[in-house]
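Record format v2
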Amino acid sequence: MHRLYVLPTLIINVVIIAIPALLTVMLAFFEWDGISEPIFVGLDNFRALWDDSVFWTALTNNIIWTIIFLIVPIAMGLLAATMMLVVRRSSAFFQVIYFLPVIIATAITARVWQGMIYSPVTGITGLLQRYGIDVANPLAETSSSLYGIAVVDLWHWWGFLCVIFFAALRQVPSEQIEAARVEGATFIQTIRYVLLPGIRPTITLMMIMTVIWSFLVFDFVYILTQGGPAYSSEVLSTFAYRSAFYDLAVGKAAAISVVISLFGLAATVLYIRTQAKEFDQ
Amino acid sequence: MNMSESRLTHWIVHITLAVLLIITLFPIALMFLNSIKPSAEIVQNPLAWPSEMRWDNFSRAWSDANFGRTLLNSAVLTAMTIVLVCTTGSLTAYVLARRKIKTWKLLTFYLLASTTAPIQLFLFPLYFGFARMGLINNPIAVAFVYTAVYSPFAIMLLRTYFLAIPKELEEAALIDGASHWQVFTKVFLPIVSPGILTVALIIGLYSWNEFLIATTFLQGQQQLTAVVSFFLLSGQYSSDWGVIMAAALIIVLPIVILFILLQRRFIEGMAGGSVKG
């Protein structure tokens, strides 16, 4: 009888996620405006994407985003987390502050940065300009818009990694650390040879999640620039969203979604493999 | 663990942590500071202390963002999601933690995979399907979407709480003639209630802050959530940034206070669900 206990979860999940996901895969081979009858077009949607420069920009931006997020927030998180081990007593305080941006809604974080920092009228950028310092609003330039958004997401995100790494570091057996110290290892050597290897599984998992999440990034791009100016900050998820709801090209949007999923798939397989180990305990 | 370091190391560590602290707090401080400032002074200098406290920014934000209505919408949607996730999630977590049968592994894989599926993979057919069934602008339908999206996370977290319960407890209850349902409700649920509270907090935070699904499915003036209403308000060209920051604070402040009061639960829950699986 207890098998029935999983039914509510399963039914909700299948109806909301699995069936629509399968429909998306099918729709990728159709032309559809969301209202009239879908028309089967074979691989036309994918061919159109192949010839679409915006698609390539978006894909490149997703890859750049993945690389940035594999390096910067993980490095920041590891740095702060190891340092928090040194200041044991105040670490709880730092942890709470660093975590604050994680709990603030993305829409609000985006607007605070947009209006109070990046804006040349109401923000810090404008203030600096009035003092004669040559800074531009990064969101308004095609060369820097993606990085301007990435900074906001970094601010929002790195604290989460820091807290996770800190929790993992505290699990490293203290005998290992003390042994290293007795043998005369410096702080840096202790990090390099004891602490980092000790939390490698956590770092690996966070890197896998970073790859998955980097292809899902939506909120900050959509709110800060809508993918502009001139598609310079477009990512696959905003590209798909606009195709579906602004251009009513649902088939094309579905094709983009399939591409997003394919990129996440390798990471997803790795994720399930690492997580499944936990389930064998 | 004891990490006694040289004086120099201590200095470097403290300075680095302090710099990161300032980077973290700076935008939040700007939000607080400018929420009580007249709009003209924000244009002059967003860093300056306001010459007069404009508390009416808050009352204007309240009416401009229709918070009387939209905060209530958010609260109702959040509450429905919490109830749905906790009830369906604890049932599934109980089975996954207690029954070791091959098919449960399949279910686990499926749930793990669905946590990594991009929202865009199911959003478009779901939207047009809901539109055909008249479910757009229906908060109950959105609560079900949130439940589908968040429950795998909740199940993974709850599962660890169920695993911590000794097998003997269940066996003893079954020998005494209790049914599986009674074991679940009378024995297990009270023991895992701290876990359910943690899940409720985190799922509550996620649904309160959620943007993409809310902005897609709830577009009617009367159905907007507080976050989407804030997004629309702050997107207007004639906006007064003092009012916008006041509106931001109204949404953020309850969350921040709750977080500071229950920080341990939040942090362990968010870290536990995504790390330990």
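DSSP finds 13 helices and no strands in chain B.
Chain B touches chain A through 103 residues (CB under 8 Å).
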